Amino acid sequence: MTRNPLDTVRGQLDFIGELAKIEPSVIEQLKNSRKVIEVSLPVRMDDGKVEVFTGYRVHYCSWRGPYKGGIRYHPTANLDEVKALAAWMTFKTAVVDLPYGGSKGGVICNPQELSIFELERLTRRYTSMICDDIGPFKDVPAPDVGTNAQIMAWVMDTYSTLKGYSVPEVVTGKPISLGGSYGREGATGKGLTICAKEAADRIGLTLKGATIAIQGYGKVGFSVAKNLAAMNAKIIAVTDIGGGVYDPKGLNISKLKAYEGEKGSVASFPQTKPISNEELFALKCDILVPAALENVITEQNADTIDAKMVVEGANGPTTPEADKILHEKGIFVIPDILANAGGVTVSYFEWIQNLNRDRWRLEIVNKRLEERMVNAFQVVYNLSKERAESLRTAAYILAVESLAEAHLKLGLFP
Ligand code: GLU
């Protein structure tokens, strides 16, 4: 039985509520979504038949600002998962101190099996159904697993068409030509790398020559591989849904990406040994990066992990039971709500640029991303030292305290 990620969120909140002595009614509110939208999406397929998909948008919390969060297209998407992901967005934006709340969307579908025309019709239908619930000051979607800049372009166009004027700031992660920000595409991977570097400095690990294993070679996995390789780290193993590859001398990550683009998986990349997911997790390495979906590090495999550091690229990759085991083993874990916050940080930059009808150069975006990530890491790290807690617990304390403070000042309507 896979763990329900919403139970994980609620467990995390109970734990932090007691530890940080947060008013129980605040915790109770944070355990629940503010608004849940479920939509039924009839879509005409290329063969002329109509298929009905189900989609969700969850508004989790807006105490710190407008709702913000991605849209996931995945066959196993479900409401509790979307709620959990929306909760994690709420904590993530608080940890990096962005003026946003948290939300998330999901559509149950397999984007790999849809044609580009079907994807467009599905996206436009979904956007039209949630049109009144999104908006630049209400809820700002972005890409997540299974969605990309093209899909965000259709969200923007559908929303703008329905409004009657162009509204680029309704969604982030757009193509550059439509007001997307330079640096957004690789932002999550860059943020992970910045956190890994900060952590490495503190635990006495040199990134040059460090061995890295990555689960997932999508947007996040590839970009963290690219950034770490640029710092002369060695990417020794990568897995994806179709299989995995291992080369103790280090993989050529650009060639691997080109190969994956062509074949649909990294599996059987020439001159490498095959490796399974479980073998990748158990591989002796310096840094392990889960960069796919939630619940992959569990009590079943946590004990096999032989890395100095785990940098969570995915949202919710580690179950609470596994987290305890990693902590006991002395593995330095950089939690998702800190490690992968680079994506939403550059989304925020994109939103600001759109609202100001401005465009920042890539160097400016990267510099500001670095400043924010380094600062957030420092704050969380110091808090973890001060309270003798793990980085994850410290990040949660920071997020929940900041949310509680905002709630206190807002008061309750009516
Ligand atoms: N989907 C990404 C995440 O989970 C980015 C969200 C955003 O940019 O709003 O953080």
Features:
about 425 residues; alpha/beta; Rossmann fold; 7-stranded mixed beta sheet; 5-stranded mixed beta sheet; binds glutamic acid
What can you see in these coordinates?
The chain has 414 residues and is an alpha/beta fold. Among the domains are: 35-166, 3-Layer(aba) Sandwich (Rossmann fold), CATH 3.40.50; 187-339, NAD(P)-binding Rossmann-like Domain (Rossmann fold, 3-Layer(aba) Sandwich), CATH 3.40.50.720. Helix content is 45%, strand content 18%. It contains 14 helices and twelve strands. The strands form two sheets. It has a seven-stranded mixed beta sheet, with helices on both faces. A five-stranded mixed beta sheet has the order 1-2-4-3-5. Helix 3 (79-95) packs across helix 14. The longest helix has 25 residues, at 362-386. 51% of the residues are buried. Bound molecules: glutamic acid (GLU).
Q: Return the structural class.
A: alpha/beta
Q: What Rg do the Cα atoms give?
A: 20 Å
How many DSSP E strands? 12
Order of helices and strands: HHEEEHEHEHHEHEEHEHEEHEHHHH
What name does CATH use for the topology of the domain at 187-339?
Rossmann fold
Bound molecules: glutamic acid
Q: What would you give as the CATH superfamily of the domain at 187-339?
A: NAD(P)-binding Rossmann-like Domain
